[in-house]
Write a structure and sequence with these properties.
By secondary structure, the chain is an alpha/beta fold. It has 2 domains: 201 residues, Alpha-Beta Barrel (TIM Barrel); 122 residues, Lyase, Ornithine Decarboxylase, Chain A, domain 1. Helix content is 30%, strand content 22%. It contains 11 helices and 19 strands. Strands 1, 11, 14, 15, 16, 17, 18 and 19 form an 8-stranded mixed sheet that branches. It has a 7-stranded parallel sheet with strand order 3-4-5-6-7-8-9. A two-stranded parallel ribbon has the order 2-10. The two termini are 21 Å apart. The structure holds pyridoxal-5'-phosphate (PLP). Pyridoxal-5'-phosphate binds next to α9. Belongs to the alanine racemase family. It is an enzyme of class 5 (isomerase).
Length: 344
């Protein structure tokens, strides 16, 4: 092993999907955008389809083509960015469902693919994607006459249970979809946990499937192993790494492992992070470099071949907190240099 290794546990993934599904009385889809949050759209979508997922969501038509390939004909594969210029061939060829975001997209879709089913994305207050209330009022009659597959919107603060924005968007979404008979959806992972009012006809979690907050009950899905390149003795008073940011307070053994901020282990991950030899924590010391991390293995009775930085003890959210970001960004940053393995 000469590069860092990512192990994705598809059992834990499908366990998390079932656990989220069990929290509602409605259907549960899956968001697999950005290469399934960096974990591999093909194996992830395939495993979820085997588990019974019938509604998949991605950001762009190109991603949808990959997911269609993995899940085969049948399940809906919907595109959050809708029908963009030049998408018609991909949408038709791979039977993708664009979520129409604007009057322009509606017009484009009607002209390019008049017989192709679509969905509707509404803006209930986030002001990012979707039809504004006024545009929807104008389009609603024509759009509903074409029997869209879904009508959905997205919460801006769904991971903060007490935030008043949730109730505000819920009321707006209800008003905008009053009398609509098409399947409706408002909830991602956060909304799924907010309670039945937010569930409508189906939920569409992403991060919770991959072991991230706000789904506190998630099983960890990813482990990351870093190969040790060398171990050196460092005398008391010597420093380690760029900027001399760590000084040995005792004679120390320092392991240098092959991964760094170019692999998504952000330089901003400061102190307080460990790597693990089995269950034994070994603290990261000194600055994280582009391709290298230094670890204090003085208390380890043997020379390790590899150290694990993500596991059940230290999660994506622990790394995120140390870096001042969110688990989503840690997952999607895990770079292309990793070798990958899947536990089925
Ligand atoms: C990313 C996304 C989701 C999934 O969100 P999670 O917080 O990862 O569960 C759902 N809906 C939309 C519109 C999204 O952009």
């Amino acid at each position: 092993m000469s590069t860092a290794h990512l192990t994705i546990n598809l059992h834990s993934l499908t366990h998390n999907w079932r656990a989220l599904d069990a929290k509602t009385d409605v259907e549960t889809g899956a968001v697999v955008k950005a290469d399934a949050y960096g974990l591999g759209a093909e194996p992830v979508a395939w495993a979820l389809a085997e588990e019974g997922v019938r509604k998949f969501f991605v950001a762009a038509a190109e991603e949808g083509a990959i997911v269609r390939e993995a899940v085969g004909p049948g399940p809906m594969v919907a595109i959050f960015s809708g029908h963009m210029e030049g998408d018609a061939d991909l949408l038709r060829k791979h039977d993708l469902t664009p979520l129409i975001n604007s009057p322009e997209q509606f017009k484009r879709h009607r002209e390019a693919l008049p017989d192709h089913r679509f969905g509707i994305q509404l803006d209930s207050g986030m002001n990012r994607l979707g039809l504004e209330p006024a545009d929807w009022a104008e389009l609603r009659h024509d759009a509903l006459a074409l029997d869209p597959l879904v009508v959905m919107s997205h919460l801006a603060c769904g991971d903060e249970a007490e935030h008043p924005m949730n109730q505000q968007q819920l009321q707006t979404f209800k008003q905008m979809t009053n009398g609509v008979l098409v399947p409706r959806s408002l909830a991602a992972t956060g909304g799924t946990l907010l309670g039945p009012e937010f569930h409508f006809d189906f939920c569409r979690p992403g991060i919770g499937l991959y072991g991230g907050m706000p789904f506190a009950g998630a099983k960890p899905v990813v482990t990351v192993d870093l190969p040790v390149i060398q171990v050196r003795d460092v005398a008391m008073g010597e420093t380690v790494g760029y900027g001399n940011s760590w000084t040995a307070r005792r004679p120390s053994k320092i392991a240098t492992v092959a991964a760094g901020y170019a692999d998504g282990l952000h330089r901003a991950i400061g102190g307080g992070i460990d790597t693990f030899a089995g269950d034994q924590p070994c603290p990261v010391v000194g600055r994280i470099s582009m391709d290298l991390i230094t670890v204090d293995v003085t208390d380890l009775p043997y020379k390790p071949d590899r150290l694990r930085i993500l596991n059940g003890h230290q999660t994506v959210d622990d790394l995120a907190e140390a870096a001042g970001t969110i688990g989503y960004e840690i997952l999607t940053s895990l770079g292309s240099r990793y070798s990958r393995g899947y536990v089925e």
